[in-house]
Amino acid sequence: MRKNNTWKRDFQRNKYKYLIFLPVFTYLIVFCYKPMYGAVIAFQNYRPAKGIIGSPWVGLKNFRDFFNDFYFPRILKNTLLLSTYSILWGFPIPIIFALLLNEITSTRFKRIIQTTSYLPHFISLVVVCSLIKQFAMTDGLINDIVELLGGERTPILQYPGNFRTVYVASGVWQQFGWNSIIYLAALSGIDVALYEAAQIDGASRFQRVLHVTLPGIAPTIVMLLILRVGSMLSLGSEKVLLLYNTATYSTADIIATYTYRKGLVEANFSYGTAVGLFNSVVNVIFLVLMNALSKKISNIGLF
Amino acid sequence: MKRFVSLAIVLAMLLMVISVAVADDASYKGDAFAGYPIQTNETLRLWTNGLGYHSDYISEDESPYHQWLEEATGVDIIWERPAAGANATQAYNLMIATGDLPDIIYKGSLPSECETMIDDGIFLVLDDYMEDYAPSLYAFLQSDPDTTRAVLSDSGHYYCFPFIRENVDWLGRNNGPTISMKMLEEVGMEKPVTIDDWDKALHAFVELDDCDIVLTGTNATRPRSAFGNAFGFQGNARYYVDEEGKAATWMNAAGYKDFLTLMHQWYVDGIIDPDFATLDLMGFVAKFVANRCGAAVYGSATPARFYLQILERDGEWEYEATQYAVANEGDPVLFPQGEALWTETGAVITTACENIGLAMRFLDYGYTKEGIELWNYGKEGESFYRDDAGNPHVMDSIINAEEGTTLALSRYTSMTGNGISIMSIAWNQEKQGKLANDMVDMWSKNAADARLHFWPPVCASIEENSELSTIESAVTTYADEMYLNFIIGTESLDNYDQYLANLENLGISRVLEIKQVQLDRYNARN
Amino acid sequence: MKKTTGEKTFDVFNALFMAFVIFITLYPAYYLLCASFSDSTELLRRNGLLWWPQGFTTGAYKLTFNYPLVKTGYMNTLFILIVSLPLNLFLTICCAYVLAARNMKLKKFIIPFVMFTMFFSGGLIPSFLNVRSLGMYNSLWALIIPGSLSVYNAIIVKTAIEGIPESLSESAYIDGANDIYLLARIIIPLITPTLAVIVLYYGVGHWNSWFSAVIYLKDNTKLPIQAVLRAILIENQNIMSANDMSDGEVNRYAETIKYALIVVGTLPILVVYPFLQKYFVKGVMIGAVKG
Q: Which domain, by its residues, includes B101?
């Protein structure tokens, strides 16, 4: 009896919320959940001609092939490391940049900086990588600078040790401006009164940043960080394919590129789907863990 | 009422008879066939990602050669293709998955899926129709048993209308070593023939002041492709047929260690371009233009990209192709770069086709004398002219077109890539130009027996693919990595035996076993 | 309010740093611009920094705009944007509002229901068959409706909504407002900066998309602009790889066209961005809640 009451009350109170959710619900059912059955091809030996109903079942074979592959540990490690370094460097820099930009007083200067800072985001990956390859040659620009600083010329992209640096550094350069936009938006939402109050209390600029600005954008930061960690294994193959070569496989070969090369031999849908499922499951685990961790530390979480 | 019913029944029967008559391919069969252009109102749906039209045109309706083909055969074709820029394999799989099959599909990589596609009921088996409905292709295949073996399925079925190169020994050769004749003069040497000649010549080049890079190529595998032959293995393709007729691979070939030893020596001595591991085509072109190179391994089409710049820079074009290096003077060249008898591209008829006779006659046109001319040269008076002996020649206005020969040709023929016909060697030589022709001639020198050693278009069964997919990636990743590690020196050649042992553990023997089974099946086809 | 010496030094270094930022981000774009106006053969020779075009030519651009599909490409993309953005905003705000709701019993079900779709999908073929079965094959609607809700963006908006004090919604309820009024009249105006950002995200996403286009569209005249530009690039590269040795007159712009395509593909966004920018520089006053 009690139970019925609480449900009724909930519906009374929240009926408009449920109404608002209805279009979203419909969309997700029709476009996300309806085709979801396709995930089963990870457990089959799928052939487009036979369709899902007609393709033979192989159980966990695709997963076993993936985990037992000689290179599984290496590609997993490379994917995790590359992702982690990208986050370690690529996550804070847009924030710091947004904070520094916020301190610029001249609006005109501010606008110019902001506009140019996201230009690299729009340069296509193919062009960026071909430029990197050109500059990284033994007689290229980067080596020119190295020589100027007293170093020796080397074929940079040939050394596994250089790969992660080149990958992460170019990624930071390309994305920091674009990624800072959301923080700038968050900054603009901080109540001006809070700044004034802090000033009255005698806070220096640095203290204002520490006690007003950062807490003001903390929810944004935490949310984006959790989401970023929740896509750890989803490192795409495009950039790595453009930058790596067989000499750098030991650090550059990631899950996506290894699977891509495998798929070149024969279009193995099932294997690719199985790998994708594995990636998704691990990503979810990371997200949940990160969320829990964040709530414990800062009391802010995604959910 | 009774009269009505019987009338209806008679009408229905009449309709049935008529529809059967319409579907009856008797008018296309054997001698009953009235010749081209075919008198018909029926259309055929053809799905392909190739056979493209020039970008000036919005669709095939504006494209000259598509129109000429439909005119000459008399059949209206509904061209279906994936959107511009789509991934062909993906688009193909999506099309198959939807179950909406066209009448004809033109694509590549046919052997790898032909058995399963026939079993799954997608590709039509043509055995019963070949002689009656595709006499030109049938006659051609009868005259060339080697090519026939290449285009049949493993179970011996005819299933496609293949793209054939008239002289695959020559037309399939498009990559190899070149060297600077001027520098050879400077060091007082002849064009190298044996691998020792190369060794001496390249070492001499190192001493030259104005030689910036001694040996380079369009990617890291080029040295293996160019010099594998001298050590008794095929370096250009992953698998090949060795001198005993067995499936083999460079990854553990007998001469591979000696090859690596020499390459490592060359790398240490500064002969091999230090950036060779990271090179790709455009990187190579930039390097070649910016630095004076002694020798390079590239394709017959590559010089077009920098011919003019080199002329400007040096005042002359000093590079000439050499034959593939051999171990001893007089040895035949067995393992150059080259193509197997069939490029695995062709047109298949699907089981959804209702008018098989029409489809077969349409496709067979490309193998008639007129068809070969149309597919290669186009239409007389519009894209080619005839000389006094009656032979066709590409018009000068096309060869000298401002947009470039290849682009201009692509309006009038699909053979700048491939087609449902036989590529004419005369046509190819005419449009390719002297420089490229000379290069291919050199690379084909002494290589008459090479055709026996290319990995043929084998078919794979589902179980084989399944097993291979489990082990092959690891084996190839390891071998590709070690190839560079040995040459650069990251891995010492003292550990070569360990390398072989590792390959064993990864399963290379099993891979070769499977390949051997596939090769045996191929050889047994007839 | 005077600045300390420390603060003044900081300002100087900050300004210098920003100047450096401008250089490292602006120069590569400038390089591209120069390269797009250069002659391929001249460009090949130059192996370093560019300060002006090598052998000035507008050839690459002419080649691009001569391609018959470029005009239809722009039109299609414009159509997609005009129709999609309102739909995107609508779905995203609805989703975010519900995700941010407090005191809702079904929330325990709704959150995993929504989040699950961010990680798991049916894959290419089932999604393709699904869209086809809905009659959207070869229609621009296949580029508009599927994918019109990005859960990632919804989470961003949800966080923004959660940043609004609960007291605001409480007082609105007391005044007799329902959720729809609250959402439309009070919440949305307060999260305009965030909404501006996701309009940017969705907009750029639509602008850059080509993958769905090449899968779902058959007619090349329906392709959006990025798909067209991609096709141009691929075609030019393919021509280069065919067997050909005419007297050097191979496609002269095959190299530089890459750069021209980027300029052509990006310029419209750069033109539109400043209009969006003012939404998140202006700032919002949350003075509505007093003590």
A: 30-165+344-377
DSSP string, B216-267: EESSTTHHHHHHGGGGTS--SSSEEE-TTS-EEEGGG-TTHHHHHHHHHHHH
Chain A nearest-CA residue for C197: A182
Cα–Cα distance measured from residue B112 to residue B461, given in angstroms and rounded to the nearest whole number? 8
- The CATH number covering residue B115 comes to 3.40.190.10
Map out the domains of chain A as residue ranges: 65-298
Beta bridge mates, C151 = none
pLDDT at C67 (0 to 100): 80
Q: Do strands B293-299 and B319-321 pair parallel, antiparallel, or not at all (unpaired)?
A: unpaired
Domains parsed from chain C with CATH numbers: 67-242 (1.10.3720.10)
Query: Which chains lie within 8 Å of chain B at 3 or more CB pairs, if any?
Result: A, C
Residue B471 lies in a domain: yes
Q: Are the C-beta atoms of C195 and A185 separated by less than 8 Å?
A: no
When pLDDT is cut at 50, 70 and 90, the band that residue C288 belongs to is very low
pLDDT computed for residue C240 by the predictor: 47
Answer yes or no: do B373 and B466 share one domain.
no
* Number of compact structural domains in chain B: 2
Domain contains B518: yes
Q: Which of B96, B277, B469 is closest, CB to CB, to A49?
A: B96
In contact, A226 and A302? CB cutoff 8 Å: yes
Residue C174, Ramachandran bin (φ over 0: left; ψ between -120 and 50: alpha; else beta): alpha
CB A253 within 8 A of CB A71: yes
**Is the separation of the CB atoms in A227 and A290 below 8 Å?**
no
Residue C251: its chain B contacts at CB < 8 A?
A: 403-404, 407
Residue B517, in any domain of the structure = yes
Interface probe for B, chosen from C244, C253, C259, C261 (most Cβ of B below 10 Å), is C244
A126 touches chain B (CB under 8 A): no
A100-155 tens-digit pLDDT: 998 888 888 988 898 899 899 988 888 899 889 988 988 888 999 999 999 899 99
Looking at chain A, how many residues does it have? Answer: 303
Q: Which residue in B56, B289, B432 is closest to C244 by CB distance?
A: B432
Cβ neighbours of C258 in A, within 8 Å: 124, 126-127, 130
Cβ contact (<8 Å) for A158 and B275?
A: yes
Residue A257 — left, alpha, or beta (φ > 0 → left; ψ -120 to 50 → alpha)?
alpha
Query: Is residue B367 assigned to a domain?
Result: yes
How far from each other are the two terminal CA atoms of chain B, in whole angstroms? 62
Asked if residues A125 and A242 have their Cβ atoms less than 8 Å apart, the reply is yes
Burial grade of B497 (CB within 10 A; 0-12, 13-18, 19 or more): exposed
Query: Could you check whether the bond before residue B37 is cis, i.e. omega within 30 degrees of 0?
Result: yes
Alpha helix segments (H runs only) across chain A: 2-28, 51-54, 61-68, 72-90, 92-102, 107-117, 125-135, 141-148, 160-188, 192-200, 205-208, 214-229, 238-243, 249-252, 255-265, 269-298
Question: Do B104 and B347 contact (CB within 8 A), yes or no?
Answer: yes
Which chains reach chain A with 3 or more Cβ–Cβ distances below 8 angstroms?
Answer: B, C
Q: CATH classification of A65-298 is 1.10.8.60, yes or no?
A: no
Note whether A9 contacts B: Cβ–Cβ < 8 A.
Answer: no
Amino acid at B62: E
CB contact under 8 A, B307 and C228: no
Global pTM?
0.90
**How many other C-beta atoms are found inside a 10 Å radius of the C-beta of residue B154?**
17
